[in-house]
C-alpha cells in the first residue's frame, strides 16, 4: 500500500521506518529541502533521528502532491501547531477518487481553539476527500521504535473497520497495535500526559524521589481522567496504553522532550528559552494553557496542570506552585465514581 507520512521529525521518521519494514511504499514528506535531500542521500535523518539508518525504499520529498498522489493512507505527524495548515494543504491537493484513511499521531490540543487534533481535522478537511480518520497513540519513543524495541500502541477511530486496517498496516513483530473506538479518550490521554511529564521532569530536577514520581503519575492520571470523562471519554481508556501507558513512558524517560523541558522549568527557564534549548517539539507547554482553560470551562479540578500553568504563563515561583499543590485542602482519593454519578 502507498502511505504518505507528513512530518519528517523524529516520530514521522520512525513510523515511516516501521511502514517501510512492513513492505509498504512510503513517501516521507518534510518542508526542509536540505534535510529531505540528506535523508535521500544518506538514509539518515541527522537532526531528528541520527542513530538510525533508514530502509532504502523510503522516498523523502518536499513535494506534498507527490507524496499524496494515490496514497491509500496518509499519516499526519506534524506538531499540533501545524495541523490546521497541513489540513488546508490537503484540501487543496487531495482528489476524491482516492479517499484515503487519514491517521494522525500528533499529541496535543490546538492552543487557540482548545480542540483535539481530530476535531481540527474534521473542521478543516472536506469530508468527501477521505474515507475515515484515525489516531495512533501510546507509549512509544521514536528512538526505541527506530531500534525495533518492543512497542505497543493503540489506534482509535469511530470506524472499527478503519482502525483494523490501520492495525494491519502497522503491526509487526516489534510493533503491536490494539484497536479502540474511543477517539476522545485516546486523544485526550495523549495530549494531557505531556503536561504531567513536564511536572515529572521538574520534580526530578529538584531532587525529589520515587514517592514524588509515583504521586505525580497517579494524581496526574486522576486529573486527566476527570477532564476526559467530562469531555465524553470512556474512563477505561485512561488505564490503557494511551492513558497510563503513555504517562509512564513520558514521565520516567530522558527520551521525553516534555520531561527534559520540565527539568528546564525547574532551572528557571521561560517558555521561549525552553523551546530554544530543546530544539524539538515540546507539546506539553502549549497544551498546558489549553487544558487549563478547558478545566476552568468544565469546572474540573486539575491541580497539577494549574500549578504548571501558573509557573509557565504567570511566572509563579516553582517553590510556591509546589507548596500550593501540596497544601490544598484534604481530598477523598477516588472521586471518579462520584464524578460519573454527577454526569
Ligand atoms: N518523538 C516521539 O517519540 C513521539 C512524538 N509524538 C508526537 O508526534 C508529533 C511530532 O513530533 P516529533 O516528530 O517528535 O517532533 P520533532 O520535533 O522531532 O519534529 C518536528 C517535525 O515537524 C516539522 N514541522 C514543524 N512545524 C511544521 C509546519 N508548520 N509544517 C510542517 N512541518 C512542520 C519539523 O520540521 P522542521 O525541521 O523544518 O522544523 C520537524 O520535521 C508531536 O505531536 C509529538 O507529541 C508522538 C509519539 C512519539
Ligand atoms: O509521546 C511520546 C512517547 O509516547 C514522546 O513524548 P515527548 O514528546 O515528551 O518526547
How would you describe this structure to a colleague?
The chain has 343 residues and is α/β, with parallel strands linked by helices. It folds into two domains: 2-181, NAD(P)-binding Rossmann-like Domain (Rossmann fold, 3-Layer(aba) Sandwich); 184-342, N-(1-d-carboxylethyl)-l-norvaline Dehydrogenase, domain 2 (Orthogonal Bundle), CATH 1.10.1040. Helix content is 52%, strand content 11%. It has 16 helices and eight strands. Strands 3-2-1-4-5-6-7-8 form an eight-stranded mixed sheet, sandwiched between helices. Helix 9 runs antiparallel to helix 10 (241-251) and helix 13 (283-297) crosses helix 14 (303-314). 1,3-dihydroxyacetonephosphate is lined by residues 107, 139-141, 194, 197, 246, 249-250, 256-258, 283. The site of NADPH dihydro-nicotinamide-adenine-dinucleotide phosphate (NDP) has 26 residues, from helix 1. It is found in: Cytoplasm. Keywords: Cytoplasm, Lipid biosynthesis, Lipid metabolism, NAD, NADP, Nucleotide-binding, Oxidoreductase, Phospholipid biosynthesis, Phospholipid metabolism. Residues 2-161 form the Glycerol-3-phosphate dehydrogenase NAD-dependent N-terminal domain. It holds the Pfam family NAD_Gly3P_dh_C.
Amino acid at each position: 500500500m502507498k502511505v504518505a507520512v507528513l512530518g519528517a521529525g523524529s516520530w514521522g521518521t520512525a513510523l515511516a521506518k516501521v511502514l517501510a519494514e512492513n513492505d509498504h511504499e512510503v513517501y516521507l514528506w518534510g518542508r526542509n529541502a536540505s534535510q529531505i535531500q540528506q535523508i535521500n542521500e544518506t538514509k539518515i535523518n541527522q537532526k531528528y533521528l541520527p542513530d538510525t539508518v533508514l530502509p532504502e525504499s523510503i522516498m523523502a520529498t518536499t513535494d506534498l502532491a507527490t507524496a499524496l498522489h494515490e496514497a491509500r493512507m496518509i499519516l499526519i505527524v506534524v506538531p499540533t501547531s501545524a495541523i490546521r495548515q497541513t489540513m488546508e494543504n490537503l484540501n487543496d491537493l487531495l482528489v476524491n477518487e482516492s479517499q484515503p484513511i487519514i491517521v494522525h499521531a500528533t499529541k496535543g490540543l490546538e492552543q487557540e481553539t482548545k480542540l483535539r487534533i481530530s476535531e481540527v481535522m474534521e473542521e478543516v478537511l472536506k469530508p468527501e476527500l477521505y474515507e475515515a480518520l484515525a489516531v495512533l497513540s501510546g507509549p512509544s519513543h521514536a528512538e526505541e521504535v527506530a531500534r525495533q524495541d518492543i512497542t505497543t500502541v493503540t489506534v482509535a477511530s469511530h470506524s472499527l473497520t478503519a482502525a483494523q486496517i490501520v492495525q494491519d498496516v502497522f503491526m509487526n513483530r516489534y510493533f503491536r497495535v490494539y484497536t479502540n473506538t474511543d477517539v476522545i479518550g485516546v486523544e485526550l490521554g495523549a495530549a494531557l500526559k505531556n503536561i504531567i511529564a513536564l511536572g515529572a521532569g521538574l520534580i526530578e530536577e529538584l531532587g525529589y524521589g520515587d514517592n514524588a514520581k509515583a504521586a505525580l503519575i497517579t494524581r496526574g492520571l486522576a486529573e486527566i481522567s476527570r477532564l476526559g470523562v467530562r469531555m465524553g471519554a470512556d474512563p477505561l481508556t485512561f488505564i490503557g496504553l494511551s492513558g497510563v501507558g503513555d504517562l509512564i513512558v513520558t514521565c520516567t524517560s530522558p527520551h521525553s522532550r516534555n520531561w527534559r523541558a520540565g527539568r528546564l522549568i525547574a532551572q528557571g527557564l521561560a517558555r521561549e528559552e525552553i523551546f530554544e534549548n530543546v530544539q524539538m517539539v515540546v507539546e506539553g507547554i502549549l497544551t498546558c494553557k489549553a487544558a487549563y482553560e478547558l478545566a476552568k470551562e468544565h469546572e474540573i479540578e486539575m491541580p497539577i496542570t494549574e500549578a504548571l500553568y501558573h509557573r509557565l504563563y504567570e511566572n509563579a515561583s516553582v517553590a510556591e506552585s509546589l507548596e500550593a499543590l501540596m497544601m490544598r485542602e484534604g481530598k477523598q482519593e477516588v472521586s471518579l465514581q462520584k464524578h460519573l454519578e454527577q454526569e
